[in-house]
Amino acid sequence: MVVREKILDMVVGCFKRHGAKRLDTPAFELKEMLTEKYGEDSGLIYDLKDQGGELLSLRYDLTVPFARYLAMNKVKKMKRYHVGKVWRRESPTIVQGRYREFCQCDFDIAGQFDPMIPDAECLKIMCEILSGLQLGDFIIKVNDRRVLDGMFAVCGVPESKFHAICSLIDKLDKISWKDVRHEMVAKKGLAPEVADRIGDYVQCHGGVSLIEQMFQDPRLSQNKQALDGLGDLKLLFEYLTLFGIAEKISFDLSLARGLDYYTGVIYEAVLLQTPAQAQESFNVGSVAAGGRYDKLVGMFDPKGHKVPCVGLSIGVERIFSIVEQRMKTFGQKIRTTETQVFVATPQKNFLHERLKLIAELWDAGIKAELLYKNNPKLLTQLHYCEDMGIPLVVIIGEQEMKEGIIKLRSVASREEVAIKRENLVAEIQKRLSES
Amino acid sequence: MVVREKILDMVVGCFKRHGAKRLDTPAFELKEMLTEKYGEDSGLIYDLKDQGGELLSLRYDLTVPFARYLAMNKVKKMKRYHVGKVWRRESPTIVQGRYREFCQCDFDIAGQFDPMIPDAECLKIMCEILSGLQLGDFIIKVNDRRVLDGMFAVCGVPESKFHAICSLIDKLDKISWKDVRHEMVAKKGLAPEVADRIGDYVQCHGGVSLIEQMFQDPRLSQNKQALDGLGDLKLLFEYLTLFGIAEKISFDLSLARGLDYYTGVIYEAVLLQTPAQAQESFNVGSVAAGGRYDKLVGMFDPKGHKVPCVGLSIGVERIFSIVEQRMKTFGQKIRTTETQVFVATPQKNFLHERLKLIAELWDAGIKAELLYKNNPKLLTQLHYCEDMGIPLVVIIGEQEMKEGIIKLRSVASREEVAIKRENLVAEIQKRLSES
After folding, report:
1. Long-range CB contact pairs, B400-403, < 8 A, 24+
2. What is the pLDDT of residues B113-165, one digit of tens each?
3. Which of A50, A118, A338 sits opposite B372 (nearest CB)?
4. Is A30 on the interface with B (CB under 8 A)?
5. Which of A81, A87, A123, A206 could cross-link A20 (Cys pair, CB 3.0–4.6 Å)?
6. What is the per-residue pLDDT across B194-244, written as a single tens digit (0 to 9) for each?
7. Which domains does chain A have, with CATH numbers?
8. Which residues of chain B are within 8 Å of residue A369 when distances are taken between CB atoms?
9. pTM: predicted TM-score of the whole model, two decimal places
10. Searching chain B, which residue's CA lies closest to the CA of residue A19?
11. What ipTM does the predicted assembly reach?
12. B108 among annotated binding-site residues
């Protein structure tokens, strides 16, 4: 939990640095609001039992509830972040970092703006967070739904199959092109030459030069949609260069993203494996993803008014797994509490003094603990401090009481100094501010 | 949301000051785990639809899941806090601060310890939080389930009716004794003289002297259970005096607390109304509550092993309502974002420079924003800062570019100073640390 909290603090800190305000929506939505938003994954939605009242479902992500919120409240412009739980009916396979309940951290920009500026900011945020968390090297794959659709069209995929083929492409990070091609031809009934044409494209990835190359591509350059997408990607890379992150971004024609609601730029960050990790088949999939969804808000608005949106989601559960795994590997121990001072006594019948003293520390804002025993042994008390990583111990006994002093002990160095009783709080605060 | 965050930070800060670690449990529990834990309120539990797999329900509070967690993981000792959502099937009546989904903040101490030390700490925590939030004057009512049961027994309530009578007593903060008495006699079939005997007790409240008085009470002093409860309450008040909070605590024989699982000390904090509030019938009920539940963990353990627990729950939703209401009354405005610097330009075609500059600020950890427009008007940009309460504006234009400087403007004073481009980040950080 401590690791989680630190990671979340860092993520939220970045969202705030980019001017987002926090928004919270309820855990359940009307069932009808969630239907037909998630494509093949709709079966993973948790429904509530009909106990009277509306039919409700648990939210599947934070994006659809955000769009519903914007439409319901007629908000035309908003930059918000949301950290919250979402639920999916999956069998938990912890190795991959997928659970039935998990935390999502989303940042979204809603509103009509000049093209690609908010999109570039989303990618900048992903870079800041992934660099900040020091997860190792990463790359963000970028594509555009319109480029994908254009590519399908010029390759000769019938429009009715766009969706199915798109889902297959999405599997390319897990299975090989050969297997994907086989499924396209054998299961989806695509002509082999159509599949091969797709294959030529989806194996391409690169930077701005690849965008230029696609602009010149004899087939793709004939497609209006694809050209729109490529134009936006070119502008995006211009901004990414200004942000100093272009070398982290890869235009990748195999990036598809399964969800139905994306309409423009899409992106997904993956950690680059070290050779050692690749051998252990240490695969965590994507750690952050997102894209542009310009039509989702309109689906919730009675009059169909659109609010263009772009956003990102940080895969914090996977990041938690990675950091935990790494801590295990390096044998790191993390404190689970923040207690600064422990109140101890070597003598019997000192509970009253300990209680008075600890109340004084609490009231001064100092994080303090004692054992809930009338007469604990000194050794037990000191061991507790070592186990819990508490740095300071205040020791009070009969002799100290008589002299009006108190002993302050450093747990690490075992050094003890005597301090006037009335200076205790000040001395502790001084020590804590120094450390 | 900003207000909520500040309140939650303050509450969590207090929990950490008392050495608690954070724990998080899933939003749903097995349906069977929640049954027969909440008495009359069980009908308010949200069940999930049976879509295959286990029958699940949304958690109703954070206490039962905590007890289930302790039993499942065989944890014998733990001090934890939990901030999370819980769900209840109520028609939302926002005036009273009750929703179908709401946030709970719980602190609990599990383990076998010397009596009343953890209980006293729970009350200390409630005092620290309620004082810290400056909600106005408050009092914490304290009673003990065993005193209640003993009282029912000596008054002549048949044991089968303890539960129903207890629930009626719990209503005494909403309806008068006269009405409660009527329900006892007319609806629950209690003999009028039994009801009158109860009435004599439940109208008593006071401090340590009332405990002493009850020890001498001819009827109550004959009941073993009641004496046990009174003995613990006496010890509790001793510790509360050492903590310096005894004057905030009132032994109140009318405090019942509806939930089934309490076994010992129970408590509930209420805000004291000013005469003006009383006239507006500004009633928010209790703002924090809790008690001892020594048998709940055993109910989840296959062998029935008990882990005694004591805890408290802060009614943060009600506190949010109160603080919001007060802010409305005083017309206070709160910033929804934390942006420190806005990057502006008075000229056209300066998007590239703005993007480069803002990336530099973000990379230095400065919270910064710009408008997502190629050519925004300067006035629009300055208005945005005023609306959002952003304190500083960085202004870049052709002249500044030539001279290698930048203008830094204070939004409040409208003062502008020229700064060397390379000193910008340092100067902003200096200004921010001073303010």
Report:
1. B401/B353
2. 999 999 999 999 999 999 999 888 999 999 999 999 999 999 999 999 998 89
3. A118
4. no
5. A81
6. 999 999 999 889 999 999 999 999 999 999 999 999 999 999 999 999 999
7. 1-330 (3.30.930.10), 341-434 (3.40.50.800)
8. 18-19
9. 0.81
10. B339
11. 0.81
12. yes
